[in-house]
Amino acid sequence: MALGLQRFNWDLQYQPVVTFPGMVLWGATTNGPTAVPGAFQARLTVDGRSQTQSFMVKKHPWHTVTDADMRAQFDLASQIRDKVNEANNAIIQIRRLKQELDDRTKKSQNADVKAIAEQFTKELVAVEEDVYQVRNQSNQDPLNFPIKTNNRLASLLRVVLAGDGKPTANTGPIFEDLKVELKAETDRLQRALTTYIPRFNTLAQRLGLEPLSEK
Question: pTM of the full predicted structure?
Answer without folding.
Answer: 0.91
